[in-house]
Design goal:
Number of helices: 13
Helix content: 25-40%
Radius of gyration: 19 Å
Distance between the termini: 37 Å
Order of helices and strands: HHEEEHEHEHEHEHEHEHEHHEHH
Bound molecules: zinc ion
Length: about 375
């Protein structure tokens, strides 16, 4: 990005910054109408036990403080969802990956079977809600689905699973979940499981990917499910790159060189992921973005800049982790996503580059999963 180009962009974008749609600049609106915008990670289904509906307007409800990483002593907490269909409409966001999240629990046969059942229940409830909201949204399994839905003025919901624990000990569950529509599986969460070692709460039990984990990666390749290395240890991630015949993703991780956190991706790993055509989806969780305090859109875009500088424009995207703990000072949910576009424009990114960051790169990786 040349200085001259930055100057031109600056002149074009004077008065760009505002939070709500009414004040959103025409440039940002126009870009969002032409490109595909995808958030690769949100944990909204985690709130299904509270009888929420992804199609509802934002209502406040009371949740267990543990869900919001607070202590029991804090008492019940008021909460508003950050990702709903109305908020996606307000934020001109075309698609999200909604995730069936499994907390890492005991790994005996019975507990593992329960984790599989729980995964299936969450996914089926999500599918039920998507069908219930078919006037405004639809289930997406491919880039073609997203294109069709956007054309019809609807939001696209992709399915993912966060934690391979949800596969239990039966490799056939990969195919079962692929058939339900799952398009990526995060191999672990916080803590080792039967598949691999995690980045946090790990005893380095397998020294990377286990034999079962290798089998799972091959089966995911066969079934068209993207392998997600967010949450896995660095050694696990390199093992995955050795086994996988398809490009992989980090669905919600940021850059370790910008802020040193075990959940972030090192430059070395970033280069290896990029060399195989994969993508790193920058997470909007403050502790991954900067040291102390609440991060801003600008902090998040610093991570995007670093990935672009290190491995190029074709290997970066956005995975917010909204409703999983993320919130930026100036972008609190799906309704505020245009703030990111505005910041990218301010820094001199072209529409073509923004289209890659906002979803083009991720859809390229998804398409590559097909045989
Ligand atoms: Zn996560």
């Amino acid at each position: 990005m040349s200085i001259a180009r930055n100057l031109i962009v600056l002149i074009m974008l004077t008065g760009l910054s505002t939070t709500h749609k009414e004040g959103m600049s025409k440039t940002v609106k126009d870009i969002h109408s032409r490109i595909y915008t995808i958030d690769s990670h949100c944990d909204t289904p985690m709130f299904f036990p509270y009888k929420i509906d992804i199609g509802q307007d934002n209502k406040t409800f009371t949740v267990n403080p543990l869900l919001l990483n607070k202590s029991e002593d804090d008492g019940p907490q008021d909460y508003q969802l950050k990702v709903t269909i109305p908020q996606m409409q307000e934020g001109l966001l075309d698609a999200v990956f909604m995730i069936a999240y499994l907390h890492q629990g005991a790994r005996d046969a019975k507990s593992s079977e329960k984790a599989v059942q729980k995964t299936e229940n969450i996914l089926k409830e999500l599918i039920r809600q998507i069908e219930k909201n078919q006037q405004t949204a639809g289930l997406a399994k491919s880039f073609a689905d997203l294109k069709r839905l956007k054309k019809a003025g609807k939001k696209a919901i992709f399915l993912g699973i966060e934690n391979g624990y949800g596969l239990g000990k039966d490799i056939d569950n990969v195919k079962k979940f692929a058939d339900l529509g799952v398009r990526y599986i995060t191999l672990s969460h916080n803590g080792d499981n039967d598949l691999c070692d995690a980045a946090t709460k790990s005893y380095q039990e397998h020294n990377g990917l286990s034999d079962y984990g290798k089998e799972v990666v091959r089966e995911m390749n066969r079934c068209g499910i993207m392998v997600d290395i967010s949450h896995t240890s660095e050694k696990t991630s390199f093992d995955v790159l050795e086994v996988s015949t398809k490009p992989i993703i980090a669905s919600h991780s940021s850059a370790k060189a910008v802020h040193n956190h075990p959940r972030n991706v090192s430059d070395k790993l970033m280069r290896a992921i990029a060399a195989q055509g994969g993508v790193i989806q920058v997470c909007l969780y403050s502790p991954f973005l900067k040291k102390g305090g609440q991060a801003t859109v600008s902090d998040a875009v610093d991570h995007i800049d670093h990935i672009v500088t290190t491995v190029g424009i074709d290997h970066v995207g956005i995975g917010s982790d909204f409703d999983g703990g993320s919130e930026l000072a100036d972008a609190k949910g799906a309704a505020d996503m245009p703030q990111i576009t505005a910041e990218l424009l301010r820094r001199g990114y072209s529409e073509k580059e923004i289209a890659k960051i906002w979803g083009g790169n991720l859809m390229r990786v998804l398409e590559k999963q097909k045989k």
